[in-house]
Specification:
alpha/beta, 3 helices, 2,3-Dihydroxybiphenyl 1,2-Dioxygenase, domain 1
Length: 135
Amino acid sequence: MKLDGFGIFVKDMSVMIRFYRDVLGFEIKEDEDTSNVFLEKDGTLFLLYRRSDFEKMTRRQYTYAEGIQGHYEIALSVKDYAEVDRTYQEVIEKGAVSVMAPETMPWGQRTCYIADPEGNLIEIGSFNKGDNNGI
């Protein structure tokens, strides 16, 4: 088997489309009233699937985590440490929820965490110190 991509089951498709498109810059051209969104980002298939439509298709109900939850993370990388800080500030100003402000970890990665509108964790990080060695 080969990993093809991943998906998240969403409650409010229009809110999630706007977040991933307008805050994180994902290229999503689907209508906000669609049942599912297929997107390829950097060679990985990314899917937003409306929970109610998935339940109807599979003819069963599921339980979903509520609030900010740590079932998984989506990891996004940027050029260097300074870009981690800039990107974090930018997405917070656009409405992302802060989970952890940028920090440099003992393993050499500068990283931060935000949450999307439905509480899914998103990491933004870099292992490249760049020209800003003082961060």
